[in-house]
Design a protein that fits this description.
8 helices; alpha/beta
Length: 259
């Protein structure tokens, strides 16, 4: 009898849009697909660590909505960034009682960017919370995280879909992007132009890795949502769920993975 293939799941960053990853996970779980390993950048790392800790997608959604740590961010009062990540750190300590990768029920890989050396760094052992904070540290908005003799920022700067650490360790890799941009008929203002340019760069970062995925899930139009627009959380969750179900229905081989 053939053993079931191991499944790796790579989750992109994208701020609150990462809530759509929870909908994807719920859809996969409903058809009997449970990742053996998850990798993530930024919001993908936050979703990933909560899921790998053992919380269900619905439980994580409830936690995110009820805590809304974005309202608790304090000014960093530093040239390094406008805010620090103390509130996120406290939130993670509440729900991750053991600050070690080894304590997770499902293995996790976290991508961050070494801003000094200009390279991607992957974490999958040792202390857990600091790498999660580093992976979520948007440059210019948050203070860089000093950890392991490095200054670290958002993993999405260089790798917003960390499939590389899953290759060779997983038989199949599913990539999930939460930043698809809808077509734009008119640029309204400079802010709109700059935001779209940043999103296009993030997506190029993802699409260069799309070919390394056996399956790719991307809910259409999520790029229209703001990075901190938590009011849209249920809508984002549902968008991820519905798109994952569409991909599953179009690829019966996915369901057969666990048969």
């Amino acid at each position: 009898m053939n053993s079931k293939p191991s499944i790796g799941l790579a989750l992109s960053g994208g701020g609150v849009r990462g809530i759509s990853h929870l909908g994807v996970l719920k859809a996969l779980n409903e058809v009997g697909i449970f990742p053996n390993q998850i990798s993530g950048s930024s919001a993908g790392a936050i979703v990933g660590v909560m899921y790998c800790q053992g919380y269900s997608p619905d439980e994580v959604l409830k936690i995110v909505i009820e805590t809304n740590y974005f309202k608790l961010m304090r000014p960093a009062i530093s040239w390094k960034g406008l805010f620090n990540l103390d509130s996120l750190a406290e939130l993670l300590k509440t729900y991750l009682p053991v600050d070690e990768f080894s304590a997770l029920k499902t293995p996790l890989i976290v991508a961050a960017t070494d801003i000094g050396k200009g390279e991607v760094v992957y974490f999958n052992q040792g202390q857990l919370i600091e790498p999660i904070l580093a992976s979520s540290c948007i440059p210019g908005m948050f203070e860089p995280i000093e950890y392991d003799s490095r200054y670290l920022v958002d993993g999405g700067v260089l790798n917003n879909l960390p499939v590389e650490p899953l290759k060779g360790k997983s038989d199949l890799v599913i990539g999930v992007n939460c930043n698809h941009l809808p077509e734009l008929g008119k640029v309204r203002n400079v802010k709109n132009l700059l935001e779209r340019a940043v999103m296009m760069n993030l997506n190029f970062n993802v699409y260069t890795r799309k070919g390394a995925c056996d399956y790719f899930i991307e809910a259409p139009g999520l790029g229209k949502y703001g990075v901190f627009d938590l009011k849209k959380a249920p809508e984002l969750f549902q968008a991820g769920y519905e798109q994952a179900m569409r991909v599953i229905e179009a690829n019966p081989s996915l369901i057969q993975l666990n048969s």
